[in-house]
Amino acid sequence: MVRAGGTERAATRGGGEVIEFEHGITVYPARSEGGRWRAVWHENGERQQCEAVSEAKLAAKLEKVTERLAADAPNMERPGADLIAHYLDPDRLQVAKRWSRKHAHTQRRLCERFAAPVIAAVTCQDIKVDHMQAVVNAAPTAEERARVAGMISALADAGIDGGYLLNPRLAKVHWQAGDRALPAPAVSVAGESLLWVDPAEIPSDGDIGKLGRALAAGLHGERDKLMACTAAYSGLRWGELVALTIAQVDQGARVIAVDRKVVEVAGHLYVEPPKGRKRRKTIYPRVTPGGYPLAERLAARISEARRAGGRDQPARAGLPVARREALAVL
Length: 330
Hints:
The chain is α+β, with helices and mostly antiparallel strands. It has helices at residues 55-71, 80-88, 101-119, 129-137, 142-161, 205-216, 222-234, 238-242, 294-309; strands at 7-10, 17-20, 26-28, 37-43, 46-52, 249-250, 255-258, 261-265, 268-272, 280-283. The strands form 3 sheets. It has a 5-stranded antiparallel β-sheet, with helices on one face. A 3-stranded antiparallel β-sheet has the order 6-7-10, with no helix packed on it. Strands 8-9 form a two-stranded antiparallel ribbon.
């Protein structure tokens, strides 16, 4: 009942009494038999009220109001679509902690495909564990299941921080097979790190040489061979390799400053800071163990790039259209 836990006082206007509760809720009992009970409170800077034909029905309505006011979470009245928009909003995060372009695209795709059909039209305060479970269970593959579960966990955490959600158990759902076949159990080597690589899996100098000769026989010939050798003996990742510019290469010290990378998002290429926004330097040999004159060939390629477009400009000759704007050396 409404009266439980409240403090009665005389009304400031008119006759009768009112009942005051925590969080600023004031209840006005019905003034006559068959009259309506009314409650008034302030939420999100605005005066709110609700009515009911009986004390019991008003008490049921005030349960959710009390929950929101106690948690200082006025956004719980908004639909799930607003929760998703809040989660995807880059301004939600500090500038230094914002998502990469690729991660943001992935999260938007997962929300649109899996989360929105289930919770977009549901009021945030009514989102239950079953809703989140349905989102995760909709994922079709093992890799997608892991991504969706991670998205739900982050979405729930962002919702709690933003005043859209209250229940921390919403972040703890995991995929359930139901009547679907279970994936094969993962097998690992006892006592070894998951990052351990068998020496037999590491490419040898002979393997790199074979790859280089195969690439040299292709469309772009020597340039593709140079790209393979540069990656193999400098440690550059693919995105760092294709973003390489003339200014990054110190030919005298044989040092490459890694301060950018290229990422592919939805068929488009973008230049971004390197992985983890961590800049580093790496070296490359004069001659590879297989006898390839890497320093000499890289210097020749840099000279060719300068003639083709100038310092820090793309060497456009023979490059695929999708890659022209990001490349300068290779």
